[in-house]
Design brief:
The complex is a heterodimer of chains A (about 550) and B (about 350). With about 550 residues, chain A is of the alpha+beta class. Helix content of chain A is about 50%, strand content about 20%. Chain A has three domains: about 1-25 and about 370-530, Multidrug efflux transporter AcrB transmembrane fold, CATH 1.20.1640.10; about 30-130 and about 360-365, Alpha-Beta Plaits (2-Layer Sandwich), CATH 3.30.70.3400; about 130-160 and about 195-340, 2-Layer Sandwich (Gyrase A, domain 2), CATH 3.30.1360. In chain A, a hairpin with a 2-residue loop joins strand 15 and strand 16. Chain A starts with a helix and ends in a 9-residue tail after the last helix. Chain B is about 60% helix and about 10% strand. Classes of the chains: A alpha+beta (about 550), B alpha+beta (about 350). The interface between A and B is large, with 73 and 74 residues.
Chain lengths: ~550, ~350
């Protein structure tokens, strides 16, 4: 009995782990708002199984450097620059987690789940990168203008949805009891404004921090035409490229920068990251064209001590460095004690803006969400019918033993899905088919075992011995047959593309799960059965 | 308890010539078809464009064809996909010279043609694939690699697991499955995509399982029944594993048929290949692997070659299946074929 209990603990633990990994959880989903055409984050509760593009719909693009208009000498560097550029544009895609990765040396893969418009996506990806250096708002013109901006927003009837209660109360009173002028001044004095309450002063002039969850709201506010009109002359707002964490919260930087760039990527000839021998700092060394050097030395002379934002495609890259002195054709950006990796990244940004890599699409797969949903629906229907047929065959033929196998089959399905979820593998349409197919194959182990038990019974062995020997003798054949299938699946995974890899993965997970369920679980059920009915003479098999 | 084929005692090996003829015929038809029509490669391998769309109302295919001609897509295939309102337009790349950008242009042209003929909003784009020639060539290479690799791995595995004669017989059976499946794909004109190649490899794995399970039994029985000859032991082993074969193939067929009928048009070629593969896999394990093993043991006798030397000589045809069921342990079996001379 102790042995049975141990086995039950193991099975129980496996079931609990599987269920935990399959509990629906909240995921953020970015969608285009129908009315405004802007991105909006919504939270959706769903099963934590990644669906391939062929099941949820979306766009898969493979891009290479366009060599048709003259050869590009270093395609690997060109693709890295392109990857950096596409990453900075990630927010423009209508998906939560776009996949942007380099495949091999010279190919860029972009996968946009849920994106419907291939033309738009391609436009975003293939647009030429634009690099510029701009001085940040050193005179705090934007900060001084914030009250006016807040007033504009208040006039437009936008209430501060997110700020603390007191300001809302102040506005409420203001609406009823005070004149417009009084109201404005009162609001200015007493309550934080709609926009200013969302901005926190950063470390340098012109830098503000916005809590990550607020940035879509702030973005929509600062892009309003009336807000733009209220901006101080010569100043624009630019977002930082990445969110950064300060303490426990994630923030996104917003920079007020001069609208006139002091120099653009056209004048940049090269940029390399290295480690300074004497100071052991990570630095980026760059070189400008002759024309660029002339402009840059003038500008830097005027702006010594100012911060210079490096902007790629409208996004500020990293923290703006301070200008220490006049810079001519050769300059360097010091990143201090930051790892060399960050310097390499910045150098890549500079090169990306300097040498735009024209990309050509070598492979495009677009699948509509409708087709994906149909595929899921059809696949699940086929699966259910397949399972029912298997259940009928197994119970019809093996009776009670068959029912045990069917119970194990239920666990098999649970384990396989949990395996997909827990390891973050992607379920594709061929994967779904592979899963359905593997249900038919999964009972093979039980069939082999049951047939062996029957043979042992025919040879006149006692029930207990027949069961033990049946499991023992069938093992050879089971292991053999599964090994060859796993080997095939591994090869398919190694050479296949997305959908085929999904097939291989479900096959591999399915085989492992079927070994656990068909051998371990069924043996346990048999042991319980035999333990509870020690006087049993004939086995229902 | 229900027992299918319990104590079955069919003389499977006896029917080998008929079996060879049937499978030879299938392969011959396949070969002729292959030469005449060629395989129906998907654009994944050839490069090209595929556009699948769903019409709001049924429109005569001729109208769509005319519209495609009007935008200059003369060579494009157009066919129904699953239902009357669902169509696929497919254009393969004419030659390796065409650039990747052209595949994009074709996809856009299909959309233009549809806007003109059925009107925008009257159709829905379901799928759009544009594969450049380079990617096509790469995928071809990958498919070939997959097939070669799985062959090598299978060989290594068999060499490790079995004595070479058994391994060789299993390889011949596997090769048979591949050829027969390709013949089937050709005759059915199924679209050969990477997923279908995956299906073929899965069939290979499945068929190999089956062969291995029978051979495992043969090995076991060779140790168990020292007096019987190989011919009898092969027959005995196939008969002993028959209930398992019927059950396992039954459940697997049930799932592949469910896929074939219910899982939709996209996965159908895969389901066809799997369904056929289960038949050919079962067939080859019994009618190819076992007779070939006998033949190999006859040419290059090993320690298991009991009686194999006389196999195939016509004189003492093995007794018919209707003979009395022989209990395996009964020493010297009355069914043992007699030496020719």
């Amino acid at each position: 009995m102790g042995k049975i209990r141990q086995r039950l603990y193991v099975i129980g633990a496996l079931i609990v782990i599987s269920i935990i990994s399959l509990v629906p959880r909240n995921t953020k989903q970015r969608m285009i708002e129908a009315g405004t055409g802007r991105m909006k984050d919504t939270t959706v509760r769903r099963l934590p199984i990644n669906l391939g593009l062929d099941l949820q719909g979306g766009i898969h693009l493979a891009l290479e450097v366009d060599q048709s208009r003259g050869p590009v000498p270093d395609c690997a560097d060109a693709i890295q620059r392109a990857e950096r550029v596409v990453r900075t544009r990630i927010d423009e895609f209508g998906t939560t987690e776009p996949v942007v990765q380099i495949q091999g040396r010279c190919r860029l893969i972009v996968e946009l789940a849920g994106e419907k418009d291939p033309a738009r996506a391609k436009g975003v990806i293939q647009r030429t990168a634009f690099l510029e250096f701009r001085i940040t708002d050193m005179k705090s013109l934007f900060k001084d203008a914030l009250p006016q901006v807040d007033a504009v927003l208040r006039k437009a009837g936008i209430k501060s949805r997110t700020t603390a209660a007191p300001s809302a109360v102040a506005q409420l009173f203001g609406d009823t009891s005070k004149t417009k002028a009084e109201r404005d001044s009162a609001a200015d004095a007493n309550s934080p404004g709609v926009l200013s309450s969302l901005l926190f002063q950063g470390q340098m002039a012109g830098e503000f921090l916005v809590p990550e969850e607020q940035w879509p709201l702030v973005d929509s506010l600062i892009n309003r035409p009336d807000v733009r009109a209220a901006m101080p002359r010569g100043i624009e707002l630019r977002w930082g490229a990445q969110s950064e964490s300060r303490g426990a919260r994630a923030y996104r930087a917003l920079y007020a920068v001069e609208s006139r760039p002091i120099i653009t990527g056209e004048e940049l000839i090269k940029a390399v990251a290295r480690r300074d021998q004497s100071t052991n700092q990570s630095i980026v060394v760059f070189q400008l064209s002759r024309r660029g050097a002339r402009i840059f030395s003038q500008e830097t002379a005027r702006h010594i001590g100012d911060f210079m934002a490096i902007i790629l495609d409208g996004r500020v890259q990293g923290q703006p460095p301070v200008i220490h002195g006049q810079i001519g054709a050769n300059g360097q950006i010091e990143l201090g004690t930051k790892p060399l990796q960050e310097a390499s990244d910045l150098a890549l940004v500079l090169r990306a803006g300097a040498l735009p890599a024209p990309l050509t699409i070598v492979d495009e797969r677009t699948i509509s969400g409708t087709l994906g949903a149909d595929s899921i629906h059809d696949g699940v229907r086929a699966g259910v019918v397949g399972v029912v047929l298997v259940i009928v065959i197994m119970i019809g033929y093996y009776r009670l033993s068959g029912a045990l196998a069917v119970a194990a089959l239920t666990l098999y399905c649970l384990f396989t899905l949990a395996g997909l979820a827990a390891f973050g593998f992607t379920l594709t349409l061929p994967g779904l088919a592979g899963f359905v197919l593997s249900i038919g194959i999964a009972v093979d182990a039980n069939v082999l075992i049951f047939e062996r038990i029957r043979e042992e019974l025919v040879h006149g062995k006692s029930l207990r011995l027949a069961v033990d020997d049946g499991f023992l003798h069938a093992m050879n054949a089971i292991v053999d047959s599964n090994v060859s299938t796993i080997l095939t699946a591994l090869i398919l995974y190694a050479v296949g593309t997305g959908p085929v890899q999904g097939f291989a993965i479900t096959l591999i997970i399915g085989i492992i799960a079927s070994m656990i369920s068909a051998i371990f679980v069924v043996k346990t059920l048999f042991l319980i059965w035999l333990y509870r009915r020690p006087d049993m003479v004939t086995l229902s098999i | 308890m229900i027992r299918l084929f319990a104590n079955a005692n069919y003389d499977f090996i006896k029917w080998r010539r008929i079996a060879f003829s049937i499978t030879g015929l299938i392969m011959l038809i396949g070969a002729i078809d292959l030469v005449a029509r060629g395989l129906n490669y998907s654009i994944e391998f050839t490069g090209g464009t595929l556009v699948q769309f769903e019409l709001a109302h049924q429109v005569p295919t001729g109208n769509i064809r005319t519209a495609l001609d009007a935008v200059g897509l003369r060579g494009a295939d157009i066919y129904n996909f699953g239902s009357d309102t669902s169509y696929v337009v497919r254009a393969r790349l004419a030659g390796a010279t065409q650039a990747a950008a052209d595949t994009q242009a074709v996809a856009d042209a299909v959309a233009r043609a549809l806007d003109r003929s059925v009107g925008s909003g009257q159709y829905q784009m379901m799928r759009r694939e544009a594969v450049g020639p380079k990617v096509g060539r790469e995928l071809q290479g990958k498919a070939v690699m997959a097939i070669l690799f799985s062959f090598v791995v299978t060989l290594v595995y068999l060499a490790f697991r079995f004595e070479w004669r058994f391994g060789l017989a299993a390889v011949v059976a596997t090769a048979h499955d591949i050829v027969a499946t390709i013949a089937f794909i050709s005759v059915m004109h199924l679209e050969v995509s990477l997923v279908v190649v995956g299906a073929v490899l899965t069939v290979v794995g499945y068929s190999l399982n089956d062969t291995i399970i029978i051979f495992d039994r043969v090995r076991e029985n060779l140790r168990k029944y020292r007096r019987q000859n190989l011919y009898e032991i092969l027959n005995l082993s196939i008969n002993e594993t028959l209930p398992r074969s019927v059950l396992t193939h039954g459940t697997t067929i049930a799932t592949t048929l469910a896929l074939l009928i219910l899982a939709g048009e996209v996965i159908r070629p895969f389901a066809w290949v799997m369904t056929f593969g289960i038949f050919t896999g079962t067939f080859s394990s019994i009618y190819i692997a076992a007779p070939v093993l006998l033949w190999i043991e006859k040419r290059w006798p090993g320690e298991d070659a009991r009686g194999a030397r006389t196999f195939g000589s016509r004189a003492p045809a093995a007794p018919a299946a209707s003979g009395p069921p022989a209990t395996p342990s009964s020493a010297p079996s009355p069914r043992a074929p007699q030496p020719a001379r």
